[in-house]
Each structure stands twice: as C-alpha cells, then as structure tokens.
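Standup notes
- DV: blocked on the single-chain target, sequence here:
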Amino acid sequence: MEPPRMQLLAVSTAAGLGGLLVFYLVHRRRVKTIPVGDGWWGAGARPLSEDERIHTFVVETSEREIEDLYKRIDQTRYSQPLEDSRFHYGFNSTYLRKVVSYWRNQFDWKKQVKVLNRYQHFKTRIEGLDVHFVHVRPSRLPEECSARPLMLIHGWPGSFYEFYKILPLLTQPQDGLVFEVICPSIPGYGFSEAPHKQGFNSMDAARIFLKLMERLGFTEFYLQGGDWGSLITTNMAQMKPQLVKGLHLNMFPVTKGGMGMLVSLLVGPYLPFLVGFTREDVRRLFPYFEKNVYEMLRESGYLHIQATKPDTAGCGLNDSPVGLASYLVEKFSTWTDFENRDLADGGLERKFSLDDLLTNVMIYWTTASIVSSMRFYKENMKENIQKRIDARVGVYVPTGLAAFPHEMLHCPLPWARWKYKNIVSYNYMARGGHFAAFEEPQLLADDIRQFTKKVEKLQ
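- DV (later): unblocked, structure below
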C-alpha cells in the first residue's frame, strides 16, 4: 500500500477510535434516568383539566366514629394462645387483651387527633387523587440561613405519624442548618385517596410526589425514606436527579450483585477485607442463610399475601379493629428486633408507647385504608421487580445511608455501591431497627444533618 494511503488509513482509524472513546466517556458520565411518564388514577375518564389548588386539611373525629369502634371492640372474639408461645406465632392474644383494654378504656382518640393537628395538613389533587401531606416550616430562621426542603416518606405498616418525633428535631436550627419538612401519605394510605385503577406502583408514587414538590415551588430538595419510602425516594432521584440535592435512606436492600455478591459471600466470612467488608458487616450478615434467607421466610408471610390476594385478607382487617391492630402492631415488635419474638409482650413498649402505636392503627382504621395500602404490594410485584427499569438504572445523586443494626436485611457498603453510585455517607447506627424515625428520632436526625452538611460542602 502506498505511504499516503497508509497515512490516511491510520489517521482515519485513530479518528474513529478517538470518536468511540469520546462517545464512551460522555455516555459513561451521563447520568442515566428512568422515564417520568404520566398517569390518571381517579375514578372514570381523565378530565381536560385538573384543580391544582392546595387546600388546608384538618383531621377530625366524631362520637359516632368512636361509638362504632367501641361496639366492634366489645364484640371481639379472642383465641387462646399456645402455652409459652410468646410472639413466635404472631401477636400473643393474652397481651393483645391488655392492649385492647387500654384502647377501649384509656386511649383518648380525641386527644390524639389534636396531636395530629399540631402540624399543618394539606391536600391537593394530582393525577386524579387527593394527596395528603403535612408541611412543617421552621419556627424561626437565623440570619443568613435558609431552610433546606426535605421530603420524608413512610412505608407499610406506618404512616406520616412515624415522623412526628423527628419533625421538631429537623425544624429547629442547629449549627446553621434547618429543614422545611414535607411528609406526604402514599396514595392509598391514611388520608391520601386510594387509586381507583390497577397498576399504581412506586414509580407512580414517585412521580406524584415530584409533582407535589414542584407544585409547592421547590426546585431543589432532599429526600429521606425507609421501607416503601426508600424505593419511592430512590425512584424520584432516578426520574429527576437535577431536582434532588441528596438522598438519605435507612433501608437499602441491594440483592442483585451477580458474581460479585457470590464471591463476597464465599470469602467475606473468612477474609472480609478482601471484599470490602468490615467486622460489623460480618457480624450483621453471617451466617448468611440464617439471617437473610430463613429469617425472611419466617417474616415475609404477610408479603406473599399482600403481593397476591390483598383484598381477601384485607376485608377481614377492614371490618375488625382488633384484627387490624394485631396485624399492624405485631410488625412493630418483630421488625424492631427479631429477639422480641421471645417476649410475652413482644417488647412493644420498650420503644413505643401504646398511644403512639394505637394512633397509627387509628389512621388506618378511620380512613378504611388497610386494603388499599396492602394493594401497593400487589402492584409493585405483578412483575419481577428486579427486571423493572428502575432496577436496571443506578442512582447518581449524593446518597447517605444509615445502617441500623436491627433492620431486617443488612446491606454492606460494597453492595450498596452497585446501585447507589455516589455514596457520600455510610454509617453503622448504634441501635434501632426498621422504623428508624419512630424508634430513634435523634439518631436519624443527627445522621440526616451530617449527611446534608457533607453534600452542601461538595456543591
């Protein structure tokens, strides 16, 4: 081949390779997102326009509502527990009688309604649904200090009320940092209207909450979540990362790691440093099958029911306040610490008051929202959740992870990085389980604050 042609070929090849390299680098650095989409979940056909006004909302009750509750409680038919069964078979009916006696004779729902109304509530119509949220602004702002918008999202069997202990900690200025907090109710939970159509999953909830934040006028904000709130906030960060300054999670199970996960499970117990594990990871993770397979089989019966036939079990729960209370409150025992199954009272009053637990139950009872809340499992698991688009796309916003020791599944930092690509904070929390804000509000508030400070320094 003639020298000029060889030179031309070499230049063309180099240019082509250079172009491919540039394309690869640009594509690799580009933040991948998932489609925002749109939806209509109201009854009937979608109208040409929708009322976007925000209305104040007040939690109310009535004598009729309370009398109906008492009548149903008084007609409860209890079962007898097995000898020495404690909480191994679920909510022990001997202790249940004590809880129900307190509910019937001492619990003051009117007083708790006033507690709920301590903060301002609102509703606004989004995609055909009346979406409820609590909006708490700082009582005072120091000079040259602006409040950081923060959305807190609950899960099941919780509610916005889980955050009532952490709200004053976040909305009081500390070291020049204070938050303006928005706590919505997932559609179908509590005071948010339930979807009227099939298919409403975490990505639809994420889109609705993004619309809510934009409707409130926020162009940048922080997110925090656990349980379903973890998945919803993750989806929000995947949809519109340009709006999310930081994502903080107290539950982040990453179970899709392929060969890397297999290697870490084989090597981790013996040479943890080779796979990036710490001693604390080893303590929380192993023996793997006992803590991550057998324990989840023991504790995930509810999930299989709710992911397949939620309406069947839900009908009974929606009709019986005592049945509803036993079904919901039992989770606050076991999910706080698996060892609570060994206790006759489930250890419930170690972390919670009966007033707090029953207030959460009453939010479900008075709104008749147990069935629609259970359907959220069905809608998210109609297909393999690991094959959904959000499972195949990483999260690129600054992320903070708080690993509580009694969370049901532990996720080490190396595993978390497979999903969350920009982790700026990962902390092993000293105590606490699944309901972080409800159990350990101070610990969670402190971790949110230190994470936010790190993010602010980076930007």
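- Follow-up: The radius of gyration is 24 Å.
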